[in-house]
């Protein structure tokens, strides 16, 4: 073991560690082992929590999605389209003599 | 508590069981937790199942998280502990099924074994030429002792500090360093033998 009070031995140990670390990391880089894996766990996690909490959590469909923003936007646009359609359908009748 | 005010607020939302905050947490950590478990266990189906279980445990136990460690460190500690239990369970199951097969072997006549074993083991030269480095390294890591594999992955794949690894594994700093040293040597040797050349 290294003597804790010996700075030279300490430095040598650190240098040897660095060399070793670089060698292993170079293997891992060459093996492309440090890339991240594609996975989607959210729906499975939500299902487990819903089941184990007996529906107390993640009970409604809104909270099960990652973000409801797109749902709000689509719903708003749909409402606008319906209003415009209703306007053009009723306009002729309003202005009819 | 956490020094980062954003993280502190986020943890408060998690404690309040805010489902949207929890969705963000899963999205933020799912790849790292899954990647870690995949390398610790070596099986995609088991790693995916266990990663989901990690987040369920986080959801259940977030109330007891005191913020002494970083949130990520706490999540990885849960992942490492669950993986240890699962590894033991899988090893027991393998041993049980091995006992079963040993029994079958005793009962089966010798000629029944011919087709099931012949040609299964490749010659070493075929093995090396046919395997990519990634497979060799994955296999070499999988063959490390579990206690060495754990620290090697946390340090050299996940890039964690010695302090974080000590917190996650519950080991002393010195033990982390010595295990890491031996893990790197074992891995280097195993890969060098497999590819037939010196590295570094």
Structure explained in plain terms:
The complex is a heterodimer of chains A (97) and B (200). Chain A is mostly helical and 97 residues long. Helices cover 68% and strands 0% of the residues of chain A. Chain A contains four helices and no strands. The model of chain A has no long low-confidence stretch (mean pLDDT 80). With 200 residues, chain B is an all-alpha fold. Chain B has ten helices and no strands. In chain B, helix 2 packs across helix 4. Chain B is globular and about 55 Å long. Chain B starts with a helix and ends in a 5-residue tail after the last helix. About 12% of the residues of chain B have low confidence. Chains A and B meet through helix 1 and helix 2 of A and helix 2, helix 3, helix 7, helix 8 and helix 10 of B.
Short précis:
Chain A has helices at residues 7-30, 42-52, 61-64, 69-95.
Largest interface: A-B, 35 and 37 residues
The helicity of chain B comes to over 70%
Subunit organisation of the chains: heterodimer
Number of helical runs of chain B?
10
Any low-confidence stretches of chain B, pLDDT <50, length ≥5? 107-123, 125-130
Distance between the termini of chain B: 42 Å
Rg calc of chain B: 21 Å
Radius of gyration of chain A using CA atoms only: 32 Å
* Poorly predicted runs of chain A: none
Q: Given the helix and strand composition of chain B, which structural class is it?
A: mainly alpha
Q: How many strands of chain A?
A: 0
User: Helical content of chain A, roughly?
Assistant: 55-70%
Largest sheet of chain B: none
Helix-strand makeup class of chain A:
mainly alpha
Number of helices of chain A: 4
The tally of strands of chain B reads: 0
């Amino acid at each position: 073991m290294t003597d804790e009070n010996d700075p030279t031995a300490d430095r040598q140990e650190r240098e040897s560690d660095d060399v070793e670390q670089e060698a292993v990391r170079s293997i891992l880089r060459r093996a492309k082992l440090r890339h991240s894996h594609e996975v989607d766990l959210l729906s499975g996690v939500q299902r487990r929590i819903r089941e184990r909490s007996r529906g107390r959590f993640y009970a409604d469909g809104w909270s099960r999605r990652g973000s409801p923003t797109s749902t709000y936007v689509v719903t708003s646009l749909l409402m606008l389209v319906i209003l415009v359609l209703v306007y053009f359908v009723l306009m002729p009748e309003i202005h009819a003599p | 508590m956490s020094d980062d005010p954003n993280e502190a607020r986020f943890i408060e939302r998690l404690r309040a069981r805010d489902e949207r905050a929890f969705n963000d947490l899963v999205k933020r950590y799912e790849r790292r937790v899954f990647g870690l478990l995949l390398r610790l266990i070596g099986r995609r189906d088991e790693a995916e199942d266990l990663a989901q279980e990690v987040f369920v445990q986080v959801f259940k136990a977030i109330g007891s998280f005191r913020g002494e460690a970083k949130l990520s460190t706490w999540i990885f500690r849960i992942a490492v502990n669950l993986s240890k239990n699962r590894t033991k369970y899988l090893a027991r199951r393998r041993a049980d099924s091995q006992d079963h097969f040993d029994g079958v072997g005793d009962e089966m006549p010798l000629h029944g074994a011919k087709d099931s074993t012949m040609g299964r083991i490749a010659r070493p030269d075929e093995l090396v030429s046919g395997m990519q480095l990634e497979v060799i390294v994955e296999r070499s890591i999988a063959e490390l002792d579990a206690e060495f594999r754990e620290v090697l992955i946390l340090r050299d794949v996940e890039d964690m500090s010695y302090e974080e690894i000590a917190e996650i594994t519950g080991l002393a700093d010195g033990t982390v360093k010595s295990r890491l040293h031996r893990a790197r040597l074992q891995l280097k040797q195993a890969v060098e033998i497999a590819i037939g050349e010196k590295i570094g």
